[in-house]
Amino acid sequence: MEKAVSIVKDFKEQCETPLGKLREVADAMNFEMHAGLDSEAASSMLKMLITYVHKLPTGDEKGLFYALDLGGTNIRALRVHLGGKEKGIVRIESEKVSIPPHLMTSSSNELFDFIATSLAKFVSSEPQEFHPPHGRQRELGFTFSFPVRQTSIVSGTLIKWTKSFDIEDLVGEDVVRKLTKSMAKIGLNMRVAALVNDTVGTLARARFSNHDVIVGVVFGTGTNAAYVEHAHAIPKWHGLVPKSGEMVINTEWGDFCSIHLPLTEYDQALDAESINPGEQIFEKVISGMYLGDIVRRALLKMAEEANFFGDTIPPKLAIPFILKAYEMAAMNHDTSSDLKVVGNRLRDIFEIHNTSLIVRKIVVELCDIVVIRAARLAAAGIFGLLKKTGRDTVKVVEQQRPVIALDGGLFEQYPKFRTCLESTLKELLRIEAAETIVIEHSQDGSGVGAALLAASHSQYLGVEDH
């Protein structure tokens, strides 16, 4: 057990995130954001994508709008009934469909035909009273949570895949055109009114009811952030300055990397064996898809080098991604005296039976190390965003009271991640500024937010019966 304790101690030291290091991460993030805004040809690792969203929801939007959310292993269709300032969001209906694994690596036609068919099935359940007038198309907000270079609010080409997707023939293609073609093929009379990233949707969802929201961040399977930028602070923007004078920027911060990130041998091995080695490094240390696998790799080393689970190495410890973040959360928040939940998870996931209390405590400590590092680095990223917009000082925040909208399964379902992120951000901000910055949960931003953006970019705005 002494050897196992030594491995954990070394791991903890390598993952440490003192405030000084976090400030260095934030400064590096800030630098890369500036570089990414300079020009498309800039060497910045942050793409700082122009979203063409300069008209965020005001709360006045009315009517029935759809949303389609594609960002992980499921697609979700939503129907959102808006009642304007008086009634707000009247009703939300949704349906989730799992994407067959083979479609994530097949062809774009197969994937989008499947999506369009699933969407049409959901639309068919629309109540009669909400059917659009003759000749009018239904309108859809399309959340596509992968790096896209947009050319308008309703068009954008895929730059590259992340997470578990790898469909070569879609890279460089317009994702809205592909979806529109598949919808037309089955006679679904629907128009994409807004193509958005889930972080932009998160921002829009919160902005519908709070005009002080300036940042939207998602911590889920992956991670990303979007924020409201002054149009004149975007050197690569060559279009007309919007009436609002603002533009939402999709940072694609998952691709951020810095010498200041506390990376370990487990992170390096995970990256080397991933489908995108050398990319999405920030995402690989803070997002839900990867946290469990970092813990698994540490446990495997302890089993191999310290007989942590006895004389034999449990075979399931060698299976990548077998440990999910939500299972980590369950173990991390086990309050029973004998850590029964931890024991049950080790049995159910890895087929490791009859673990001692000391073994269970060490497993919890590993989960602690990984999630605390993730949360503190996530806070450093948000602090970097605030520095970029000049909202990290008390003088500015007193005037503007900026609100940061957060969403995603990791943020929602992992209390330790959430509380650690919030407390770390307050540590990074000056005390006075920390009291003024507001963190808000933007419930279902990637879905409802997309429908709201479809509403604010509707081609029927101002039409009486809309």
Automatic annotation (TrEMBL):
GO terms for biological process: glucose metabolic process; glycolytic process; intracellular glucose homeostasis. It is a single-pass membrane protein. Keywords: ATP-binding, Glycolysis, Kinase, Membrane, Mitochondrion, Mitochondrion outer membrane, Nucleotide-binding, Transferase. PANTHER family: HEXOKINASE, PHOSPHOTRANSFERASE. GO terms for cellular component: cytosol; mitochondrial outer membrane. Belongs to the hexokinase family. It is found in: Mitochondrion outer membrane. This is Phosphotransferase. Its EC number is 2.7.1.-. It comes from the Eukaryota. Pathway: Carbohydrate degradation; glycolysis; D-glyceraldehyde 3-phosphate and glycerone phosphate from D-glucose: step 1/4; Carbohydrate metabolism; hexose metabolism. InterPro entries: ATPase_NBD, Hexokinase, Hexokinase_C, Hexokinase_N. The lineage of its organism: Eukaryota, Viridiplantae, Streptophyta, Embryophyta, Tracheophyta. It holds the Pfam family Hexokinase_2. Gene3D superfamilies: 3.30.420.40, 3.40.367.20. GO terms for molecular function: ATP binding; D-glucose binding; fructokinase activity; glucokinase activity. Its main location: mitochondrion.
